[in-house]
Design brief:
Blueprint (H helix, E strand, L loop, with lengths): L2 E3 L20 E3 L1 H16 L9 E5 L5 H10 L3 E5 L9 H15 L7 E5 L10 H9 L3 E5 L1 E5 L2 E7 L4 E7 L2 E5 L11 H7 L4 E4 L1 H4 L37 H11 L4
Parallel strand pairs: 3-4, 4-11, 5-10, 6-10
Antiparallel strand pairs: 1-2, 7-8, 8-9
Helix pairs in contact: 2-5, 3-4
């Protein structure tokens, strides 16, 4: 999961042209909420829900722990927050490395069967991290699923394209990303909010997961933002009045001048 700046807030950039993730309000990426929902549904529909553990994993600054708490309130069993100053400014490649190492550490005692991801983050919208994560972990990937069904270790998904719908089958363990067409994510209930306070939460550094700080961060990113420009204020629109019956010709003339008609 990813902790992203609130799209309705005043988003800003740091002096190095990276997104300010500390001085702005943030929240769990909406597209990742669908992944949390599908993970919880798979647990609820399994033959033995009590033996299934859903772990919420997030990489980000100190405030990103709020995203993990949201997932715990929704129903996840435990949370992991990877937080290290060296991660700041990391690109997709470095992010996938940190995630892969964190998942591997999380599965040391009990192997991980399924890594569930959202289709993209609502800030960068890259949609490439699930594929990179699968490659690093040596697992098959099934991406952009709109419907997910499981039976034992078998996974069956539907992927909607522009002209057709694919039905794909795979065997766990695997990496799976889901779209916002899988169904609405649940809201945390009061009971869930209270229960989340007692659920285990771990905070790991790069050292804890065995990642060299020199492999992550802005200094080794394969791409960077050279310049940012504030969006200009929205100009006032032109009002067409119809006080004397001339409104229709005036509107048509305006649309024609803009080559809309």
């Amino acid at each position: 999961m990813k902790h992203v700046p609130d799209a309705t807030a005043d988003r800003r950039f740091e002096s190095d042209n990276t997104v300010d993730r500390v001085g702005v309000d943030g929240l769990l990426s909406e597209l990742d909420e669908y992944a949390v929902e599908q993970a919880l549904q798979l647990k609820e529909k399994s033959e033995d829900p009590a033996s299934t553990t859903v772990t919420a994993l997030c990489v980000g600054p100190e405030k990103a722990v709020d995203a993990v708490r949201k997932a715990l309130q929704m129903g996840c069993d435990q949370g992991i927050h990877v937080s290290d100053e060296a991660v700041a400014g990391s690109d997709y490649i470095a992010t996938s490395l940190v995630l892969a190492k964190a998942v591997e550490k999380a599965g040391e005692e009990t192997p991980v069967d399924l890594v569930m991801c959202g289709m993209a983050s609502t800030d960068a919208s890259g949609s490439v991290v699930p594929a990179m994560l699968a490659e690093r972990m040596g697992l098959p990937q099934v991406t952009l699923a709109s419907v997910v069904e499981t039976q034992g270790d078998q996974v069956r998904v539907k992927r909607d394209g522009d002209t057709s719908t694919e039905v794909i089958g795979a065997t766990m363990p695997l990496v799976l990303s889901v779209t916002d067409q899988t169904g609405e994510a649940r809201y945390p209930s009061f009971k869930g909010i209270m229960a989340a306070k007692k659920k285990p939460m771990q905070t790991w550094s790069l050292a804890d997961i065995g990642v060299d700080p020199s492999l992550v961060g802005l200094s080794v990113a394969w791409s960077e933002v050279d310049e940012t420009t504030e969006r200009p204020p929205r100009s006032q629109g032109e009002i067409v009045k119809d006080e004397d019956g001339s409104g229709a010709p005036a509107l048509a003339g305006f649309l024609a001048s803009k080559k809309f008609i």
